[in-house]
Amino acid sequence: MIDLKYIQKNFDEASKKLQKKGVDAQTLTKLEDLFSKLKEANAQLEAMQAEQNSMSKLFGQYKKEGKDITALKAKVDANKEAMLPVQERAREAQEALFSVALAIPNFPDDAVPEGQDETDNVELRKVLEPKNFDFKPKEHWELSEINGWIDFERGVKLAKSRFAILKGEASRLERALINFFLDTNREKGFVEYSVPFINNATMLQGTGQLPKFGDDLFKIEEEDLYLIPTAEVPLTNMYHDEILAEKELPLLMTGYTPCFRKEAGSAGRDTRGIIRQHQFNKVEMVAVAHPDKSDEIFEMMVQNASDILTALGLPHRVVELCGGDLGFSAAKTIDLEVWLPGQNQYREISSISNTRDFQARRAKIRFKEGKKNRFVHTLNGSALAVGRTIVAIMENYQNEDGTIEIPEVLKKYM
RNA sequence: GGACAGAUGGGAGAGCUGGUUUAAUCCGCGCCCCUGCUAAGGGCGUGUAGCCUCACGGUUACCGAGGGUUCGAAUCCCUCUCUGUCCGCCA
Per the residue annotation, which of A162, A356, A362, A388 is the catalytic one? Predict the structure, then answer.
């Protein structure tokens, strides 16, 4: 959640920042107005409550001393009644404020490039040269057919479209990748976790998926539970509503989970192959960091994901997202895009974001700095998306006859 | 799924026949004092969020969650969640 006090004190600046993310000034004005209304109502209510409390105390005293309480009772009753509309006003303001505030995205960092969509993203560097094939490289679904790696039809039969089955070597490759990713992350200082794949609504709100993006989530019917769209949700929310000691920071976490997404806005995109599935596997990095250290940790996370791709011999480029392409919770995001020779283009395989204190405010994750509590910074990033790594290996390591080599670093895992 | 018990501040633990409890007490933790080392002792302080105040300080809410009764609820009533123990079932 954005800092309401900041908005109130620096309205113009806040408004300008949020324009980068497509929030109009009108919404912000409404927010500011609701915030003022809430404060006003609360101040009045509290004064009345104070009055009520002191009269009640007196009431007890009178009774003890056997004094007449008729007059006092009338006064206290009148005050109680007068409080009701004020109470209602405060409650309404609170509700209205939150419904607006929870739907406002994070401020982008000042250094984030201007832009509307992914075409305005900025390429920072390329790592590894794409290999020159002396034949026309095939797309991964063609290679899958030759090798019998992916069973799309039966995946659809079991669930519905955008579900697939990995078979034999492909399934083993997936398992090897997960282990390779987790081991590498562990070597970089991330602690490995195995977490619930189902989280409740409070947690989804903590990391920013709810209330605005419920359409992208699979919900468990009749329960307040959702299948996680990313391990960022459980890993970050492990510290939901906790106050950490400063010396505990940073908390570096990694975990493998399946991820479930409805892909509501992506009908018709990437319908062939396993680039875009309703269920995919991912190894995630999450950091809970001291605000002064989050930039440093961010760079480390980007470097780690890039190093993994390099170790796998996969050409990729590092791209900084422009304001218009930033996710809801992110202040800054760097995507890693892997080269897919079959598709003849770079495709996203990792996305690393610093949410600053945006998620920390929602999830109430703080640390003790001296006597004061301060919000932490939370960061998350894939290292890596497993399914897309399989696609990348298939397409980059294919031979002319359609067979696929296994990258050297994975051989000990298979 | 059934039966019983429970949920209090960093920990332990009282209060639970409604009103000097601003949540006692102990431990832990912090600062200070005493003590020529050590041990021991003494004093003060020590939750979260918000609002008002330059500050000192004041004030409201929070005793698992939500609602109710009452002038007043940790305490009484209702609903829910979770934990423990036993039984049943189960990878």
Answer: A388
